[in-house]
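Section 5.1 Outputs to date
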Amino acid sequence: MKAFSIYLVVLLTGLLLFMGCAKQTPMASTLPQGEIITNNINSAVGSDETKYVTLYYVTQQGGYLVPVNQKLCNTERPVRVALERLIAGAAAGEGLIAPIPPETKVRDLYLREGTAYVDLNEEFARKLGPVRLQARWAVETLVQTLTEFPEVERVQLLIDGKVREELAEGVEIGIPLERQPWLNPISQEPGEAMVVLYFDYQGRYLVPVSKGVRDFSRSLSQLTVEEIIKGPGDLVGLEPVIPAGVTLGSYEVKEGTASIELILGEEVAADTTWDETKALKALLYSLMEFPHIQNVKLLIKDRGNGILPGAVEIDDMRCRVPVVNAVGE
């Protein structure tokens, strides 16, 4: 049988962040004047540089936060552009919800000591109303989107220039909010370690979920691969990226490279509809969460063709890591 190896070389750009609201005394109802440099969030993108901006939306099925990436070019204020795109919801394709009301206007946006102050108009709160779930989604997508930028560590929401304690019942916005390090947690019991797993949503997006594991007889990175092979189980709206009948032949991490060998059952080996590209991306994104893994080598036995067609240069077996859920390309 032929076996094809695919090498993806990855440069990790950072570590996981840790979750929770900042433990601070709630701010006064109005901010002191003269202490903040207005509109000083720049991180300019030069004319010769192309970046992606990560926007967070919510899946219609299951209510999962999902990152969507759009190209961002030629702007001196990418943070503000990201916020305005998030509100406009243009990147929220079929199957996704943009929870921030389109009537929302950005009155001001500024940065002080790692905190982005986002001043929105009253329509933001009024259109959301008392619906707790919609308000929570609006806050979470906004915080996750803005804290993708390294200079933004937390987000303080203002409504017409003032701090409010709650946006809806149980949705507190009175203090600066930090991003969630574990997106879409599905389980975590005492003594468990969290791993991030990517699964398919409607054939269009890869959705990260965070799951607690407690079997420490193997490495967390190997457990991550095994959990992806198992699939999402009964999680609403999510589908496996690796079909039933595939097993893990071997797994090893050596000198920063994770080597994965998958063995196909007879039915899978004959299946020409399996999206191997998506499976490879899901494994890649999940393993990128581990700082000691810089490279991924995938070996699929009993497969003669169809692996990443047109996506790699076979001469050197290397390709640039694609961004998660890129749209508009």
